[in-house]
Amino acid sequence: MHTIKFFLGTILVQIITVTLVLISPLEDYSMLNILRLLIPLVFIALMASFWFSTLSRYFNKDSQERMKMAFEKEKEKIHNEFAMKEEKIKVDAEKRED
User: Where exactly are the structural domains of the chain?
Assistant: First the structure.
């Protein structure tokens, strides 16, 4: 599911890039015309990189939180098993003393 969001973002950036190239008036390849095309493309690339960075940070934080919850569940399970075994040992020791 996470990769779909990155894929859609990449497709969106490509569509915007193609649209800008098609509507740009590049009859002559002067430096000014090339800059008029490159400046919006660089801006779009920067926005996309910030967007992807934010998405990956969110997915990383979400993954860490899920791992933390799984670790806490496992820790609680081990603690409960240990407490049960400890209680069983105490009961067995009391039976032997009697």
Answer: 2-97
